[in-house]
Amino acid sequence: MVKVCPNCNKEHQKRERFCCSKCQVSYWHKAHPESTQRARQKFYTKVSKDFNTFKEGIGCTFCDYAKCGASLDYHHVGNKDFTVNAEEWHCGNERVKEELAKCILLCKNCHSELHYKERRGK
């Protein structure tokens, strides 16, 4: 008996409703967007918390401020390929590590002062 997958509309000979597990997962996510969104939000909240905790462990390069990781920014010293954020940091791939090697960690005040001095040429 030939069946049609409700996700990709391909015909298949299997007993299951879907032609493959990818179609089954994709179909479920489309049918339950609120569960998917809640899980994604929970994941990003944890990643963001871990990222801030990681930054707190290092602290500001200039003034040693380390109370709040959300108040610490990466400042690119060399050429900037992309901005490092919690989602990319979590992946931990070589590209992110190379980008972090070009950065120093600064608190918001020191970061603002540094850019002010750079703009003024001092």
What does this structure look like?
This is HNH domain-containing protein. With 122 residues, the chain is mainly α. The chain has a domain at 58-120. The chain has five helices and four strands; from the N terminus they run E-E-H-H-E-H-H-E-H. Strands 1-2 form a two-stranded antiparallel sheet. Strands 3-4 form a two-stranded antiparallel ribbon. Strand 1 and strand 2 (11-12) form a beta hairpin. The protein starts with a strand and ends with a helix.
Characteristic key phrases:
single chain; 122 residues; mainly alpha; 4 strands
Per-chain topology:
Layout (H helix, E strand, L loop, with lengths): L2 E2 L6 E2 L8 H11 L1 H26 L13 E5 L9 H6 L2 H8 L1 E5 H13 L2
Antiparallel strand pairs: 1-2, 3-4
Protein name: HNH domain-containing protein
SSE sequence, one letter per element? EEHHEHHEH
Helix content: 40-55%
Radius of gyration: 23 Å
Roughly what is the average pLDDT, rounded to an integer?
Answer: 86
Strand arrangement within the widest β-sheet reads 1-2
Low-pLDDT stretches: none
Main β-sheet description? 2 strands, antiparallel
Structural class: mainly alpha
Q: How much of the residues is beta strand, in percent?
A: 5-15%
| Bulk shape | elongated
- The rounded distance between the terminal residues' Cα atoms is 78 Å
Q: How many β-strand stretches?
A: 4
Protein name: HNH domain-containing protein
Organism: marine sediment metagenome
